[in-house]
Structures are given as structure tokens and as C-alpha cells.
Design brief:
This protein is of the alpha+beta class and 169 residues long. The radius of gyration is 17 Å and the shape is globular. The chain has a single domain, classed as START domain (Alpha-D-Glucose-1,6-Bisphosphate, Chain A, domain 4, 2-Layer Sandwich). The chain contains 3 helices and 10 strands, in the order E-E-E-E-H-H-E-E-E-E-E-E-H. Helices cover 25% and strands 36% of the residues.
């Protein structure tokens, strides 16, 4: 399992060793799941399955422009589906002001990319981006990035364990 959470750090090894350029906040996680792409796709796009590994309460119309809701205890809120390219790509925007439509600059984009690793495995890549564009204080962005970096690790691990435990995939 690989993971990376950065504030857009780019190492310039050929120019100056270990120098980082801060360009953006970005959370990335990747895991290989012991389940075919179609099974993983269903688990990330169907509300009754999402609630087994991710949010406590889920409503989702998994079509471009579709509306949804993800509640995590006393947190969470609405989302809008951005892209659906069945069965390899699914994305949505969330954490936008309630009186605005989500767009770059007022929301975060969560992207799931699925790649088959043979007949019975799927590489799932999750990216949450757009934090650098929000008008939040840097301390709030840092807190959010740290919480979500750990959160995505927890959730995709839970997803992999849930799917690996299924007898009939």
C-alpha cells in the first residue's frame, strides 16, 4: 500500500538535493484490493455499500451532476458528482458553502481511479485536492490535510478488508 500527503512538495533532486517547492495541498492514497474492478466500483458508488466502509449515512445519485449527502457522525454534508466513467473513474466535490454550487475555489475534489490488476485485484487511487484554493487560514488547511490523510488511509483499508472478506464477489 502506498500513500502520500503533501502540500504539493516537489523535490528538485537534479538542481538542489532535498529542496521542496510548496505549490498546493493534496492528499493521495493508493491500495491494491483483492476484488475485481466491478466489485470495487459498486462499493464506491452505491450508497448501501459506501455506508459499510466510509460514511455513516449516504445518499448518492452517481451520475454527473448528481446530488448526494455523506454524514460522518456529526460532520459531513452535501456533495455533487463531477465525473463518472464506469468502471474506472468516479469523482465528486464536497465541503462547499451551503449557499453556493461547488466549483474549483470553493470545494474539494475527491477522485477515485480504478485499474485492474488481473482478474481478481484492483488498484484504487484516491486523490483529494483543491484545498489550496479555499479561503481558509493555513492552520485550518494543515489540520484538514492531516485529518483527511489519516482518514483516507483508514477508510480505504476498511474497504479493502470488507471486500477481501466477501465470499461471492
Amino acid at each position: 500500500m502506498g500513500s502520500r500527503a503533501t502540500k504539493g512538495c516537489t523535490l528538485w533532486k537534479d538542481v538542489l538535493p532535498l529542496v521542496a517547492v510548496m505549490t498546493e495541498y493534496r492528499i493521495e492514497r493508493e491500495i491494491v484490493i483483492d476484488a475485481p474492478v466491478a466489485v470495487v466500483w459498486s462499493a464506491i458508488t452505491e450508497p448501501e455499500q459506501i455506508s459499510q466502509w466510509f460514511a455513516d449515512r449516504v445518499e448518492l445519485d452517481a451520475v454527473p451532476g448528481g446530488r448526494g449527502l455523506m454524514i460522518f457522525g456529526d460532520q459531513g454534508g452535501p456533495l455533487v458528482v463531477q465525473d463518472v466513467d464506469r468502471p474506472t473513474r468516479f469523482s465528486f466535490r464536497w465541503n462547499h458553502p451551503h449557499d453556493e454550487e461547488p466549483a474549483a475555489g470553493n470545494s474539494l475534489l475527491v477522485e477515485f481511479t480504478l485499474v485492474s490488476e488481473g482478474a481478481e485485484q484492483t488498484r484504487l487511487h484516491v486523490v483529494e485536492s483543491g484545498l489550496e484554493l479555499l479561503p481558509w487560514p493555513d492552520s485550518e488547511k494543515d489540520r484538514y490535510a492531516e485529518e483527511h490523510n489519516g482518514g483516507w488511509l483508514t477508510f480505504i483499508t476498511r474497504l479493502a478488508e470488507m471486500l477481501a472478506g466477501r465470499e461471492n464477489r
